[in-house]
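Following up on my earlier thread - several people asked me to post the actual chain instead of describing it. Fair enough. Here it is, all 714 residues.
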Amino acid sequence: QEKLSRLSAALLGEDCEVSHEQVYELLKYAALGKSHNAAQPSWCRIYHQSHLAGVVVIVLHEMSQLHFYKFYLQFKHLRRVFRHRFTLPPSSANFLANLYGDEPSLNPQNTTQGSASTSSQCATNSSGLQQDPVIQKYGEEKRGLTSYTLTLEELKKNDYPMKGSPGYEGYICTECDQQRTDSSPLFGLDCEMCLTAKGNEVTRVSLVDAQGRCLLNELVKPESRIVNYRTRFSGITRKILLPVKTKLADIQKRLKQMLPHDAVLVGHSLNADLQALQMIHSSVIDTSLLFARNEGRRFKLKFLAKAVLGKEIQCEQKIGHDPTEDARAALELAQFFIEQGPAKVAELNLEMLLTTERLTETSSNKSALQLQQNTVQRQQNGPPQLSRSCFLDCLQLTGQKPLLLGRQEPDSSGLCQGNLSTSNKQILQQALKDVPLSTFSIIQFSLDPEHAAPHFLAGICEKVRIKLTDMLTIYAGPFDESFCLKTVKKEFGRCGPIRSLTVVTETYQPYICIQYEVLEAAQLAVETLNGAEVAGSCIKVQRPVTGTMLDCDVLIKELELDIENEGVIYVAGLKKSLTETDLQEEFSQLKDLQALFLPRDLQSGKHRNCCFLKFLKPESAVDALEVINGWAMTGSRLRSRKALAPGHLWRWIWQMDHSNEKQKGDILSVEKEQQPNFEQELREKLRKLDQHIWKLYRRLQNNTLCVVLFPGVN
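Reply from S.P.:
Thanks for posting it. Predicted structure:
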């Protein structure tokens, strides 16, 4: 179910962030394929790679997601042609230097300084250690095990069963309620599940003690009919379960008897195991969270066991996972972390090790001992370098000469140097001739340096923030002096999650100002409540009237036509107690429903009162809108409309709104410094760049993979 939900989220844009390393592995596989031992990307899949006619990477230097949404209307072709859109996190590495096989940590701005001394390299490594998410979360000092058990807030955020929480009624408590200390016993737990008519149900349970001894390894007969044994992962078959008499209640009873009152359970994404067991245990160490990564991503247990412990688990030769093996691996990982401390874990440089494992051409029968030796060597030598021979040299060996065009050309070290004498138009003309003849091309367009100046970007950022805030805001009224605010909030809350509601008293009669969390909610309020009777008054609902909002209707229309929103609808008015499973059942009658995304508050982790539905066909989405809005005629609370904001835009709005306030004085001074036509010049340049991309795109052969990068300036 975890894999299914992650797929659903990706379809709707929630899982919308990819790293530079992930883009690299996509391009590498697309260019080389299995014939050169390149692996499928970890985050997406390319089918029939051998049919690809070529790969084209278009780099828009000095441009970022900020430019894309500030000048959204100017990127007419880009937003209508490119179906998949992802956010790139900031990176200290130079992407093109990586692509050419140079050291990831090199900074193109430092090329004139030559080689760094040993002492400065040590300082850089120390600084990098401080940026490691493990150090940022736990510090460098060693601690006892109680420092690594999940807090109450973390348990809630990561969907751990909790006493008294909705959805966990009837769950059995382990009754391990004694105060934990750093000498409390650790137990590794892992379950394998099959899919039944009821959902995920446990079919095998393993428990190991702190010495790794197996205390429990039991098959379990599910209560409901099994619809998918998931043998590839669970190892369970119909034949295996046929003689089994043990029920879930038997396992629950045995676990309660076996676990001491101060037991600490260890597992990898242990919340799924406890949910399947229908048990509540408040003291846990989750190794998927313990070995922290940036942006909420998690390492797989298989990778951690290999990289940290030097152990091979979940081998492809075996049918299904061994829960005892997985429970023991999770336990040993926790013990390693506690005994060695965060600093030692950070020194393993797991993120770079993961990238190198994907990029390095290694044989499939590489032993665990060899991996341990490589890990030790990496610890001694520092972060590994990306080998030039792993990508572009392989292309040349096969007779495929890569093409690089642009104002940024690599020097002898592979780093990019500016060539300001070349215009974007000249680059386009050359690309139109050469790209169809090349199987791998990098085309680079650039802005003028003044358009990438920090003070200019700060001004643009503030304007975008103000515009997004205005688009999320509506004013409604007039109301009677004695109107019921609770009734009004309830009615407008049916349109979607409300961030803030204030009463405007400067007017003759009271009005309300509401700021929503998603664009769809504000638009739904304008469309459905303008002219309606609310709290005994016939009201008008409108957005703020400002200069930035004059093109709001045009922008809303274009967002509806955005290719990422094709076949996606927004539904509001949900009960917050409903789970994704409940909603899938409620909407199961809708034809061609492909995926459901239930947004969470990115701070609290709680579900919102709205969701997004994606359909296989756009016409099915239109039919679903009619059905859902028809339910309102029969008393349903639900309201629905076409989606406006792809997942990455929704996430970006939230991040901008919750980021630190910028200094208003600085931005005001920026505004004064900028010439009146400066922004208009940039708008025209980006419109022309959009046309350049469209002309180049039309010249590409069929079956060409085309990636456009907005790398930003940092």
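The chain has a mean pLDDT of 80. That should answer part of your original question.
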